[in-house]
Amino acid sequence: MNALRLRAAAALTVMMLAACSSGPPVAPSPNNPGGAEPATLPGDGGPTFVPGRPSTFAFAGELTQGGWAKGTVPAGTYSLSLDGKPVPFAADGTFFVAFDRDAAPTATLTAGLRSGEQVVRKLAIAPRAWRIERINVARREAGPTEAYLALRKPELAQIDAARARQTDAMGWRQDFILPVRARISGQFGSQRIYRGEPAAYHSGLDLAGGAGTAFVAPADGVVILAATKPFTLEGNLLMIDHGMGLNSAFLHCSQILVRQGEHVKQGQVIGRIGATGRATGPHLHWSVKWNDARIDPILLTGLAR
After folding, report:
1. What is the β-pairing status of strands 191-194 and 132-135?
2. Is the entire prediction scored with pTM above 0.85?
3. Nearest to 262 by CA among 271, 254, 253
4. Nearest alpha carbon to residue 87 among 296, 292, 302, 305
5. Which residues, in sequence order, are CB contacts of 32 under 8 Å at separation 6+?
6. Beta strands in 136-267 (DSSP E)
7. Do the Cβ atoms of 257 and 272 come closer than 8 Å?
8. What is the pLDDT of residue 142?
9. How far apart are the C-alpha atoms of 286 and 197, rounded to whole Å?
């Protein structure tokens, strides 16, 4: 009988502790629809302790230059960083990180635990054999004109403002699809070198669909920029936020079929291919960034395997 009483008391204590630790319900907000517990940024003090998760990281993805990883943080995590920079994670402990085209050979994930301990995981980032074209002529020295800069500066300001917008998009959780089934005419990361001087590398994936061909959203998201007039380089520019710092840009559109602030679903038609801006012919330039890192769109689709 004494043993039964002890077990009953222990069970009651666990239930009381669980009730005390659950806290009041979270109110809905624009970035937190339905009142779900919000994503936590390192150091914001928000509760994201989820018992039952393992005591170390679990993740999968493309651990290579221009690649990405999705995973879950260890149980008891209240802060997460990649190479010292804060990384948000969702209430269920899932996170997304990515690696720039020129990422170093190693990266470090660090989880700060409520116990005061840290869980550190070193990631080996595989190098890529980029398509490099060496040209035995000098690179043209002429810089941008004042007239060009006068046009370009406000365009860049719009792009920066768009990428700074925080939305409730959840597309980062999905496996991406190609925006259009078409021949790849330009690969991410390719670069020309003029007598030892490197030019800027190609920052996206070029898909050579015909003029007017419809393209779709590669994942769920929120429209953060829908150009009302062509930009000097990008032409009619469309940008979609997929959440957690991940966003897509679609360049040279002949037509944009969605509006800024609109939520779009994966596979939804969002525009038509064109040759606006600086383009030699009709194609869709699809680029993807995670925060400041430029990543290879094809690696998000799984088609490169």
Report:
1. parallel
2. no
3. 271
4. 292
5. 26, 38, 168
6. 184-186, 191-194, 197-198, 205-207, 214-216, 221-226, 236-243, 246-253, 255-256, 263-264
7. yes
8. 64
9. 26
